Amino acid sequence: MPSKRDVEVRFTFDPGRLRWLGGVLVFFIVLYLLLQTSESPNNFVTSTTLAGAATTTQPPLPVVGDPPILMIVLNDRTCSACDTREIVQTTQTKIFPTVEVEEVDISSERGKRLLSELGLNTLPAYIFNASVEGAGEFSNARSLLVKVGGRYVINPSASKVGRFIEPPGEDDDPVLGDPGAPVTIIAFSEFECPFCGRFAQDTLSKLKEEYIDTGKARLVFRDFPLSKHDHAMKAAEAAECADDQGMFWEYHDLLFQNQQELGVNSLRKYARDIGLDMGEFNQCLDSGENTEEVMADIADGSNVGVSGTPQFFINGKPLEGDKDYIQFQELIEDGLKKIA
Fold this sequence. Notes:
Layout: E1 8-9, H1 18-36, E2 55-57, E3 69-75, H2 85-95, E4 99-105, H3 109-118, E5 122-123, E6 125-128, H4 138-141, E7 145-148, E8 151-154, E9 163-164, E10 175-176, E11 183-189, H5 194-212, E12 217-223, H6 232-244, H7 248-257, H8 264-273, H9 278-287, H10 291-303, E13 308-309, E14 311-314, E15 317-320, H11 325-339
Parallel strand pairs: 3-4, 11-12
Antiparallel strand pairs: 1-13, 2-4, 3-6, 5-9, 6-8, 7-8, 10-12, 11-14, 14-15
Helix pairs in contact: 1-2, 5-11, 6-7, 6-8, 6-9
């Protein structure tokens, strides 16, 4: 059986453009492999000890026809999880060989200005000038770049996020556990995603027993329905309608137990099964009054680099995909130690 990635992604590709597809896949696979590597100690190397100073790394020999390209690597030199070396090396040797790399720290005036001008929320940030448009591989890499003004930034979902300028918030979304618990797990999820279902049916029960029911952690559920799932958006709205009546988690459990049956009639049936006021539920669901709430969650998730489900943040630290219980346990225990 072919292996499957443990997160469902929002990106789609046109199968008719083979060369474009091949190039994008190569770039994506390289960056994906970086995401899957175990975290190693990061020695953020610069050629100067002055805080906020920029350094320049010489690129390899230019490719004929490609213009000189500047890539600014905006980073926090105090961040132990913000290692840029592999992505920089991959970019220089595999994607844009004419690139010149300039490292800028966020504590510098230039760094602060870039954060503000580009609206960045994750570090490291990899910023290309407009010359990248003339590179031979630009069209292949374009789907992984976000254009901001006259610059291009590698989408945070395609690079390893080391830290957030502002971690994702909780909004007013459903919370499972003690509101005062010291560890907060924010989950961007949806009801049709099989990996989300596996988490809800397996890992969550263990987390409840060990951490949530004991008051050590709490779980915040935020909606992130994927467009490729026909029923995910309406199921998210229905769950918000159940939340309006104080029964989100009961409805949440039924939806994940019945992921193959999420049509509107089924959504109404599950509401009846848990004893919701059907007049109120039907009015809520049919009017789309919670569409804006769901879209706000999607926007918040996208702003912190979420592109697939499930995506977790444990006291601000990202954990992507259907990870096993041990990986959750490590981050939760780390959070508990820091506040002890």
